[in-house]
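Hi R.,

As promised on Friday, here is the backbone we talked about, encoded as structure tokens. Could you run it through your design pipeline when you get a chance and send me back a sequence?
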């Protein structure tokens, strides 16, 4: 143990409280790892598929900046069978409005690749159901959709959308 003079025991010296250059990257990496961990817990929990998907969908907003997210599982004919969604309450869908437009699901399944649309209001895929991704204001909404695959077969679609902070600004 270091010898500290008795008159300096409770003394607090100047400290440099600035963050180290790499600490922001580390905190973002920690957040991503935590997100993967939380999602893996939900995926491995003993529950029905619908509950598992809903739990995963509810975890996503904690780790991904998004307005709305959805997981859609397809049946043997390629029709949406199970859907789970999370996000802003005003983006929730009733049974009459699809979570993800049918044309978007069909495109992702047909191509087997991700789909990124910077502004859904300018996309032909969203024109059949323009209310599905209506933001309620003039800010553009970006859409990201990826196929959910197992053993080279597409089982469904994972999607999320984000509103831009201004009509010409960046996402978030």
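Update: got your reply. Pasting your designed sequence below so it's all in one thread:
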């Amino acid at each position: 143990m270091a010898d500290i003079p008795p008159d300096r025991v409770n003394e607090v010296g100047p400290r440099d409280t600035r963050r180290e250059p790499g600490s922001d990257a580390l905190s973002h990496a920690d957040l991503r790892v935590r997100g993967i961990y939380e999602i893996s817990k939900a995926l491995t929990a003993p529950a029905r598929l619908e509950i598992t998907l809903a739990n995963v969908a509810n975890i996503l907003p904690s780790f991904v900046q998004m307005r709305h997210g959805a997981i859609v599982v397809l049946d043997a004919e390629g029709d949406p069978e199970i859907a789970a969604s999370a996000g802003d309450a005003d983006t929730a869908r009733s049974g009459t409005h699809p979570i993800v437009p049918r044309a978007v699901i069909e495109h992702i399944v047909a191509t087997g690749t991700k789909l990124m649309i910077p502004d859904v209001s300018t996309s032909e895929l969203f024109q059949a159901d323009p209310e599905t991704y209506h933001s309620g204001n003039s800010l553009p909404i970006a859409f990201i959709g990826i196929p959910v695959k197992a053993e080279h077969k597409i089982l469904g679609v994972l999607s999320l959308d984000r509103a831009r902070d201004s009509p010409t600004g960046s996402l978030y």
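One thing I noticed while checking it: The beta strands are 68-74, 80-87, 115-117, 141-150, 153-163.

Thanks again,
M.
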